Amino acid sequence: LEFACKSHQSKVQESQIQILSLLSEQLRAELLYVVTFRCLTPHYLFTCFDVFVDNLVMNQLTIQAMRLCTLAVDDTLFTTGIESKTAFCIQSGSLNYRVLSKLSPVDENDLGTQLHEEQWLAEASMWTSWRHVGEATASEDAKVVFLDADRFMDVVKLDATATRVCSIYAAAFVRELTGIRRADFSDTQFLSSEQVEDLERTFWGEGKELAPGTAHGLASSLNP
Predict the structure, then answer these.
(1) Closest CA to 101 of 183, 169, 208
(2) Which of 109, 112, 141, 150 could join 98 via S-S bond, C-beta 3.0 to 4.6 A?
């Protein structure tokens, strides 16, 4: 609470900047993304969105599917076994992540992995049914972007190109996931460099069209 209050007090509020009220909703959404959610930009999916998808889609995702939350040191972001409908990206600060799956023996000497700005957790929840297989806590005061999977897809499915981009990306992500033993699952799972290279050939190679389809639920169940 103390960190949240200090963070709120140190940030200039929209109501204090009168010129913001003169901006269109589209411009306000673009400004919000640049100021608050730019940590998402390096992610390969959002790189593809920048190239192929209309800015209006990104604006609606910013307004409807994204929010910024603050964590004080030792706050828990999530714990193992809980169904996830949200992906997380660290905007600032750092988190500690430890795998605590029932399928893997707990190593008492495992101090976890430190995650920092622009790193993701639980991206799998965007593309398939997912339960957390570990625990994430704040190593220091942190700000984390919450990306709501259902709201994300509600926006994406209204645009044919965004849907096709997500379909191709999601298929690659789930293909990567299904090649991993359940005992080796992690909430930090991301696409390998090989999968990214395959996507690049699909998106930018020799005039191939984006494949149609829907992105959410490509795998029926990958719950550990």
Answers:
(1) 183
(2) 112
Looking at the chain, the number of H-run helices and the number of E-run strands are 7, 8
Q: Residues with Cβ < 8 Å from 19, sequence gap 6 or more?
A: none
For the stretch 20-53, pLDDT in tens is 555 566 777 777 787 789 999 999 899 888 888 9
Query: Which residues in 125-199 belong to E strands, given as ranges?
Result: 134-138, 142-148
If DSSP codes are grouped into helix, strand and coil, which group holds residue 96?
A: strand
Q: Are 214 and 163 in contact (CB under 8 A)?
A: yes
Whole-angstrom CA distances from 181 to 12, 27, 223 are 47, 45, 12
pTM score of the predicted model: 0.79
CA atoms of 163 and 67, how far apart (whole Å): 22
Q: How many CB atoms lie within 10 A of CB 128?
A: 20
Note the pLDDT tens digit of each residue in 119-175: 999 999 999 999 999 999 999 999 999 999 999 999 999 999 999 899 989 999 998
Burial (0-12, 13-18, 19+ Cβ within 10 Å), 32: middle
Judged by DSSP in three states, 132 sits in coil
